[in-house]
Design a protein that fits this description.
The chain is an alpha+beta fold. It has one helix and three strands.
Length: 68
């Protein structure tokens, strides 16, 4: 069974950090693809003993500007 999650990605020093917005689980990698693959693996390990992950409300992500 597959589940859909939302991730944010952020450059931190030499690594890309991928964070799952639904549950806060994070992983990192040298590239965006590597960071996402590592995050998927972390989520699989996190949920492997749970028969069905909880449902989360749909998350909408956007960016905007603020003048300061």
């Amino acid at each position: 069974m597959t589940y859909k999650f939302t991730a944010s990605l952020q450059q931190e020093d030499e690594l890309i950090v991928a964070t799952c917005l639904e549950n806060g689980i994070a992983s990192q990698g040298q590239t965006i693809q590597n960071a996402l693959e590592n995050l998927k693996e972390a989520l699989e390990l996190y949920y492997e003993d749970i028969p069905e992950p909880p449902t989360y409300p749909q998350i909408f992500v956007t960016s905007f500007e603020v003048a300061v």
